[in-house]
From TrEMBL:
Family: Belongs to the radical SAM superfamily. Lipoyl synthase family.
Taxonomic lineage from the root: Bacteria, Pseudomonadati, Pseudomonadota, Alphaproteobacteria, Hyphomicrobiales
Family annotation (InterPro entries): Aldolase_TIM, Elp3/MiaA/NifB-like_rSAM, LIAS_N, Lipoyl_synth, rSAM, rSAM_sf
Keywords: 4Fe-4S, Cytoplasm, Iron, Iron-sulfur, Metal-binding, S-adenosyl-L-methionine, Transferase
Catalytic activity annotation: [[Fe-S] cluster scaffold protein carrying a second [4Fe-4S](2+) cluster] + N(6)-octanoyl-L-lysyl-[protein] + 2 oxidized [2Fe-2S]-[ferredoxin] + 2 S-adenosyl-L-methionine + 4 H(+) = [[Fe-S] cluster scaffold protein] + N(6)-[(R)-dihydrolipoyl]-L-lysyl-[protein] + 4 Fe(3+) + 2 hydrogen sulfide + 2 5'-deoxyadenosine + 2 L-methionine + 2 reduced [2Fe-2S]-[ferredoxin]
Protein name listed in UniProt: Lipoyl synthase
Origin species: Rhizobium alvei
Entry's Gene Ontology molecular function annotations: lipoate synthase activity
Cofactor: [4Fe-4S] cluster
Domain of life the protein comes from: Bacteria
Record region (Disordered): 1-24
């Protein structure tokens, strides 16, 4: 009886680790960051498909502001290994707690959804699963292989956790040959203690670098949020760290506070400041940069992948002609 009551409570309290925190001020959003509520037919169809296959999307779980636009176009980012995360990042709206067992039918269900939605490019992310011996690496592998079998022409982008203290996990995921390997730094290193306390900045940098060592042809990608109190010079140094790891694609978006218990928005970065970051990032050598208030890791991922390939081809053509 006690177990049943505890489980019910865990489901009811989305962020039990944040319940004791004092409420943070919620800043009024500027005009450039407003989005319309999703009401389109395409949105409803995508939502029905997700429910039909018992799938979880980061679009819903993280409260993405672009869900209306993306789901209307039949774009969705699937979140595997459940909807409960073992980490408790101060910025994230994904539920925290003790995860359930892995759903062994999930790889096949995701593959079916990819086929039904006619996706030419799919993004697969996950919660952190520190409770699993391999951090969920085998499950990532199974999902990638299932999609390849069902829809061979679909390109696959993965957004992974950091596999901290999980030897061999990264190598297994890279060996499954996703087209894009994304792992987000989320914020500058000086913010990690308060924003991303379960992670280690230089471990994440090293993970991205290791992907390129394992497969130099694989595209790598990473993203951060701004508005968390970072200084401009800290962002520029982070760009240099990513380029040292040979990361191809960087995304920069505005942090939006999910609830009063989450980390507060320190500032709303203007569109002009985002444009400045984009200009500097290209100058530092990134093949692709997406920087705007509503930029998210998987926003426009399919179009961005096509541009990423074109940028590499142009770079290689130029290098071959010199």
């Amino acid at each position: 009886m006690v177990t049943i009551l505890d489980t019910t409570t865990e489901k009811r309290v989305r962020h039990p680790e944040k319940a004791h925190r004092p409420d943070q001020e919620v800043m009024r959003k500027p005009d450039w960051i407003r989005v319309r509520a999703p009401v389109s037919k395409g949105y409803s169809e995508t939502r029905a498909l997700v429910k039909e296959h018992n799938l979880v999307t980061v679009c819903e779980e993280a409260g993405c502001p672009n869900i209306g636009e993306c789901w209307d176009k039949k774009h969705a980012t699937f979140m595997i290994m459940g909807e409960i995360c073992t980490r408790a990042c101060a910025f994230c709206n994904v539920a925290t707690g003790k995860p359930l067992a892995l759903d062994q039918s999930e790889p096949e269900n995701i593959a079916k959804a990819v086929v039904k939605m006619g996706l030419s490019h799919v993004v697969i992310t996950s919660v952190d699963r520190d409770d699993l011996e391999d951090g969920g690496a085998e499950h990532f592998e199974k999902v990638i292989l299932a999609i390849r079998a069902a829809s061979p022409l679909t390109t696959i982008e993965i957004l992974t956790p950091d596999f901290l203290k999980k030897p061999g996990a990264l190598e297994r995921v890279v060996a499954a040959k996703p087209d894009v390997f994304n792992h987000n730094l989320e914020t500058v290193p000086g913010n990690y203690l308060t924003v991303r306390p379960g992670a280690r900045y230089f471990h994440s940098i090293r993970l991205l670098q290791r992907v390129k060592e394992l497969d130099p042809t694989m595209f790598t990608k990473s993203g951060i949020m701004v508005g968390l109190g970072e200084e401009r010079n800290e962002v520029l140094q982070l760009m240099d760290d990513l380029r040292t790891a040979d990361v191809d694609f960087m995304t920069i978006g505005q942090y939006l506070q999910p609830t009063r218990k989450h980390h507060r928005v320190v500032s709303f970065v203007t569109p002009e400041e985002f444009k400045s970051y984009e200009t500097v990032a290209y100058a530092k050598g990134f093949l692709m940069v997406a920087a705007s208030p509503l930029t998210r890791s998987s926003h426009h991922a399919g179009d961005d992948f096509a541009r990423l390939k074109a940028a590499r081809d142009a770079q290689q053509t130029k290098a071959g002609g010199e």
